[in-house]
Amino acid sequence: MGNETPPLHSRGFGEAPALHYVEGPTGEPPVRSAEPIPLSREIPPAEGPGANPPRPPLLLLHGVSRNCGDWDLLLPGLLRDWHVVALDHRGHGKSARAARYLVADYARDAAAFVRGTFSQPVTILGHSLGAMVALSVAAECPNLVAAIALEDPPFHTMGSAIGDTIYLPQFAGMQEVARRGGAHGAMTDALAEIRLPAPQGSEGSASTIRLGDLRDRASLENLAECLSQVDPNVFSPLIAGRWLDTFDHEALWPQVACPTLLLQGDPAAGGALTPGDVAIAQRLLANSRHEFFPEVGHQIHRTRPAEFLERFRRFSHR
Fold this sequence. Notes:
Helix 2 packs across helix 3 (129-140) and helix 5 (184-192) packs across helix 6 (217-227). Strand 6, helix 3 (129-140) and strand 7 form a beta-alpha-beta unit. The protein has 11 helices and 11 strands. The strands form 3 sheets. The chain has a 7-stranded mixed sheet with strand order 3-5-4-6-7-10-11, with helices on both faces. It is α/β, with parallel strands linked by helices. It folds into 2 domains: 20-159 and 243-316, Rossmann fold, CATH 3.40.50; 162-239, no CATH class. The chain has helices at 75-78, 103-117, 129-140, 167-180, 184-192, 217-227, 236-239, 249-252, 275-284, 300-303, 305-316, and strands spanning 20-22, 31-33, 40-43, 57-61, 83-87, 122-127, 145-151, 195-197, 208-210, 260-265, 288-293.
């Protein structure tokens, strides 16, 4: 996003999966694109456009079932230092629906978006799915990526090993809620009733526990709002254990030349990035930093936003 580009508060990339329109510069007709490029939201700086000096670009990539609004808690802190662009992945938020939802598909979309949008290297901050996509983009577009910050990328925790986790019944339940749709309150109630395996050592003899017993009402309301904008088919490859088909993170790490921040949630609290995958990344990366958040689960940026921002700021200001 070079200085010559007029500031846009949003960019529409169409609704139909077969043909998409990318908004051109002011006064020019839209450019037609055959690729399912997602919709992005460009956040104006706090003091308005035209601020000096120009801020470096930051691309935000959300996790599966969420949308670009998932980063709103961090925006006041991020906008002081960055020109922020937030993306809706295919099948999420206001982006077009698609025929397939593998991690490799999201990564291909994001790489095309980076190539077509930024004229200077961009820093990418991604959560979960967005973290895996950021890794892939950094490997594929090394000259266009300045740094990546990867928040709890799940890799095979949500891939071939998903059957051993609570994520399988959780995503199956979320898919059903998304398919049924309905009023926001009804979707929130349905999410609360999703049954998950009870944690080992939990009190009582019940073998399952409600999602509503693990998350507060506000968290479930936020999830219901996101699910109302999700294609239910997003969950199909996750449930089938095929989400990571053709995506090989061990082959990608050595191709990443930029500085990399690994932000790891606590596996004992629901974090999805395993110590084994952290060790692989640190062994294969040339320039990396690892930050661990004890007693914090998968959604670090929503659970500890101030601490998350501070650690990201220390990394980005290195």
